[in-house]
Input
Amino acid sequence: MGWLSRMGGVLFSPGKTFPYIASKPDWLVPLVVIMVFSLLTVSLFTSRADMGTMVRAQLEPRLDRGEISEQDFERAVELATKAGKYAAYGGIILGFPLILLAISGVFHLIFTLQTGKSTFRKVFSVTTYSFMPSVVSSIISTLLLLSRPRGSLTSPQELVRSSVAAFLDPQTTSKFWYNLASSLEFFSVWILILLVFGYATISNLSKKKTAAVVITLWLVYIIGRAALINFAR
Output
């Protein structure tokens, strides 16, 4: 089974594909493919988005609370607008592989303690392949971005409305619940399902037990993230 067949098989036939990946774990090609598509999307997004408006919307609550002066606010907006594109690129090139390593490390430890049959290479391979739905998301986002004029986007949520937050009013919904709803997103759930299939394959745990572990940790993460964002604002 070639790497193209593995990437396509993971998306649509994970039950048949993950056993093959477990027998011959690899990660470089899917990692590069995911990053290339993500970089393409970021490049198009930053060229179509009104970065100044986006940054202002993020910093205005601090200005309203008197935490920063008007002068500091304008300086921060200017700096963040210029650095935003490069920060996004850095997040993909450096941040994404580190996230995969962190996720793999946590689950490798859990599976080692539970069954003693896990290897980090297998866990990292499964984790990387499980993020293939992000390529589908990037392709959809790219097609939508190509139809948008420059400077027409003021928020990433305007592009692909695939989360529960699309049904909420950000002005009337509390920041905590809105950010939590933003994490309840179609492609994230797809990734979780693939993680369950893949981890169950390499750990010899049942899918039910694997799902309990994966979903519990995911819930802890998204609730903690929403709480931190809410507190920071």
Remarks:
- The mean pLDDT is 85.
- The chain has one domain: 3-232.
